[in-house]
């Protein structure tokens, strides 16, 4: 039996770092959404595990048991032949490997296999990626609450092709205990209202990431015509939110023309 699964990119619209546990894990408060751009996986049940990686971002992706996709299948007790068609840049702050791992868990469940250990062992972003719906993610990624009522949103995602090691970004963060979002999120009637509210929120990792890779500031500048521009996750991908698909298409074409070596993608925010 062959199953095809889509692994949508994750975007942290907000990312507040609210504390540091004694075990070294950071506490977060983040509004997470997913978009209609991502990786594609094919899963075929087999007597033994195998992983083939193809696509524009296949270079450097491991094809052994160190890959999160392989580990996710093993966590479910599933042996399968897996093909990963990689369209998202690696280590880019948009979920990549975590979204792929979550997709494998969804596929395994279709075959009657379920995780035999906590999926947080695969990383803090895997639980939020399981549903691919807007969620508020708190704690170390283990406290999830669905978020409804989002307006229609279009985005342009931009990655300049540089790596930003997540541990280095957290280490460079000066304040480890910052204010979370309000306990109750507002009701947004329009995209303008939503973007205005977002403008009062933060990604606390943006400044330290720019300190490590100053080109991130250049990426944000290219999104000058967005209703809101911000970095996602620990970088280096940034997003701009636009009021219409046409506006996002115009912005994406402009940025591509001026930066042919960057990864640039138009996207629609998935509302569940």
Folded structure, characterized:
With 272 residues, the protein is α+β, with helices and mostly antiparallel strands. It folds into two domains: 2-145, Ribosomal Protein S5, domain 2 (2-Layer Sandwich), CATH 3.30.230.10; 148-270, GHMP kinase, C-terminal domain (Alpha-Beta Plaits), CATH 3.30.70.890. It is 26% helix and 29% strand. It has eight helices and eleven strands. The protein has helices spanning 68-75, 96-110, 126-129, 166-172, 191-199, 206-212, 215-222, 245-258; strands at 2-12, 16-20, 26-45, 50-54, 80-85, 135-139, 143-146, 154-159, 228-231, 238-242, 263-270. Strands 1, 2, 3, 4, 5, 6, 7, 8, 9, 10 and 11 form an eleven-stranded mixed beta sheet that branches. A hairpin with a 3-residue loop joins strand 6 (135-139) and strand 7. Helix 1 (68-75) packs parallel to helix 2. It starts with a strand and ends with a strand. The model has no long low-confidence stretch (mean pLDDT 96).
Distance between the termini: 27 Å
Given as residue ranges, the uncertain stretches (5+ residues, pLDDT < 50) are none
Count of spatially separate domains: 2
Assign an overall shape: globular
Task: Please provide the count of β strands.
Answer: 11
Sequence of secondary-structure elements: EEEEHEHHEEEHHHHEEHE
Please tell me how large the radius of gyration is.
18 Å
> Which percent bin holds the helix content?
25-40%
- The portion of residues forming beta strands comes to 25-35%
Number of helices: 8
* Whole-number mean pLDDT: 96
CATH class placement of the largest domain:
Alpha Beta
């Amino acid at each position: 039996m062959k199953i095809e699964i889509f692994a949508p990119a994750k975007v942290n619209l907000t990312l507040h770092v609210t504390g540091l546990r004694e075990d070294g894990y950071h506490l977060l408060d983040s509004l997470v959404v997913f978009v209609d751009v991502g990786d594609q996986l094919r899963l075929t049940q087999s007597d033994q595990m195998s992983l083939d990686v193809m696509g524009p971002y296949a270079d450097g992706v491991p094809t052994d048991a160190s890959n999160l996709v392989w580990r996710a299948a093993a966590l479910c007790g599933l042996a399968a032949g897996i093909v990963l068609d990689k369209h998202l840049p690696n280590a880019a702050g948009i979920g990549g490997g975590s979204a792929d791992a979550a997709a494998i868990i969804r596929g395994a469940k279709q075959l009657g296999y379920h995780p035999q250990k906590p999926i947080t062992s695969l990383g803090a972003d895997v639980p939020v990626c399981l549903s691919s719906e807007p969620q508020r993610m708190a704690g170390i990624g283990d406290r999830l609450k669905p978020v409804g009522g989002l307006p229609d949103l279009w985005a342009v995602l931009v990655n300049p092709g540089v790596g930003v090691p997540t541990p280095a970004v957290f280490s460079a963060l000066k304040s480890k205990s910052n204010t979370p979002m309000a306990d109750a999120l507002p009701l947004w009637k329009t995209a303008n209202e939503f973007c205005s509210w977002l403008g009062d929120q933060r990604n606390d990792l943006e400044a330290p990431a720019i300190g490590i890779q100053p080109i991130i500031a250049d990426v944000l500048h290219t999104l000058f015509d967005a209703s809101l521009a911000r970095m996602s996750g620990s970088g280096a991908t940034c997003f701009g939110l636009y009021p219409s698909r046409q506006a996002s298409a115009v912005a994406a074409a402009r940025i591509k023309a001026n930066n042919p070596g960057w990864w640039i993608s138009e996207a629609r925010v998935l509302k569940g």
